[in-house]
Design goal:
Layout lengths: L39 E9 L2 E6 L7 E7 L13 E6 L9 E6 L5 E5 L7 E6 L3 E7 L7 H14 L2 E7 L7 H7 L5 E4 L1 E3 L2 E3 L1 H8 L3 E5 L6 H8 L25 E4 L5 E4 L13 H5 L24 H7 L7 H15 L20
Parallel strand pairs: 3-5, 8-9, 8-13, 9-10, 13-15
Antiparallel strand pairs: 1-2, 1-4, 2-3, 4-5, 6-7, 11-12, 14-15
């Protein structure tokens, strides 16, 4: 008698169970992932349309660039320029081959930004950089202090050393601009155009040698010109500043890590018009001011550090932050203000509204 013909009191056994085959395969699922002990180490030098270009065998005669895709087992973890990764598959680097990225090493540093100032979700732009080089022109286009301040916040929060690079020093005395950021104690270099090329390049090379540095700045400040001078075979596109709007045209459209002749890496990024910092909290910014940090103990709970009863005011008034305490506190609060979206009625002619542009 078949199972369908048995009465309500019939005894059932395992022979009566109907097993429906798994349409996706018969292997049982497991959370264990392959160890990939044979994965080859690589350094991501570029990412383009879902494909990563990884340098394998760095510094050896077998050095080559391997094109790779992210393995499904990594989930939603993204790959960015500067990542150290593990590769399997065809890692020969020959044309029309594709390897798989199966491991992303822990990042020493991560430059993050949010889509805009209302989006709390951050995304990593560059990984494992030691230094954030904020490039701005002294004129043509005019410096945008608000954007520079935002880049400084990103550097401090990411654990990267900031370096201010002023370009086009032949158009205006650099001292007039440097004074804006003097209270931060920033290291700064100045370049200018001369009859024999770019002046001040030796000082820039000295700051970059042996380090991984990412260059950030808005369009038209001469960032691509600087990269081409530092890396002669870089061939980064250069443009000009619009005489009507005072803005530069986006020339670099992709991010790339370029090897410096004297050792080290420089990561060039497309020009930006904004830098979303919705993910940054005031405590992270305060850690960049060690002379002010102890004064936080005098703050009321939940203090935003820009309110009347903030404990930092008393700390500075007592001279416990040093002779430059008042100036440093003002600079700290300026960075806090840079985190907030700019209202259109507070924006001047040389400070257009912050419109983020994906790097």
């Amino acid at each position: 008698m078949s199972p369908g013909q048995r009465g309500p009191r019939a005894r059932w056994d395992e022979d009566d169970v109907r097993v429906r085959p798994n349409p996706k395969g018969s292997r049982p699922r497991t959370k264990e992932r392959p160890a990939h002990a044979d994965a080859v180490d690589g350094f991501v030098v570029a990412v383009d349309r879902g494909r990563s270009y990884c340098l394998v065998g760095e510094g050896t005669p077998q050095q080559r660039v391997v094109r790779a895709m992210r393995a499904r087992e990594l989930g939603r973890q993204g790959v960015v320029v500067g990542d150290r990764v593990g590769l399997v598959g065809d890692v020969s680097g020959t044309p029309d081959t594709l390897a798989r990225i199966v491991r992303i090493d822990e990042r020493r540093t991560a430059l993050r930004r949010s889509a805009d100032d209302t989006d709390p979700i951050e995304r990593v732009v560059v990984a494992n950089a030691d230094q954030l080089v904020v490039v701005t022109a002294v004129a043509n286009p005019e410096p945008r202090s608000r954007l520079v301040d935002r880049c400084l916040v990103a550097a401090y929060v990411s654990g990267m050393q900031p370096l201010l690079c002023l370009t086009k020093g032949d158009l205006r005395p650099a001292e007039e601009v440097l004074g804006t950021w003097a209270p931060f104690g920033l290291d700064a270099v100045v370049t200018s155009r001369g009859p024999e090329g770019l002046l001040g390049l030796a000082e820039v090379r000295e700051r970059l040698e042996g380090r991984t540095s990412v260059l950030v700045g808005h369009s038209g400040v001469g960032k691509s010109t600087l990269v081409n001078a530092l890396v002669p075979d870089a061939d980064r596109a250069t443009g000009h500043v619009n005489a009507v709007t005072g803005r530069g045209r986006h020339t670099s459209t992709s991010m790339a890590a370029l090897a410096l002749p004297g050792g080290g890496w420089v990561i060039d990024t497309p020009g930006i018009r904004g830098f979303g910092l919705a993910h940054v909290d005031p405590e992270a910014v305060l850690r960049a001011f060690p002379d002010l940090l102890p004064g936080e103990q005098e703050c009321p709970r939940g203090c935003t550090h820009d309110e009347p009863d903030c404990g930092l005011d008393g700390w500075v008034a007592q001279g416990r932050a040093g002779a430059a305490g008042a100036v440093r506190l003002a600079s700290f609060r300026r960075l806090l203000a840079a985190r907030r979206p700019a209202r259109e009625d507070q924006v001047g002619p040389d400070e257009p509204p912050e419109v983020p542009v994906d790097a």
